[in-house]
Amino acid sequence: MGPERQKQEAVDKMNAAFPKRVVNPSKPPILIVSDNDTISKEVEVFLFHAGLASERVRSMTAACEFARSGWFQVIVASPVLPDGSWKRLAEIDSHYRPGFVVILVATNFDLNEWGQALEDGAFEVLDALYELPKVGEAARRALWAAYLKGAGPRPETLSAPGVV
Question: CA 20 to 30 Å from 153, out of 21, 69, 82, 147?
Answer without folding.
Answer: 21
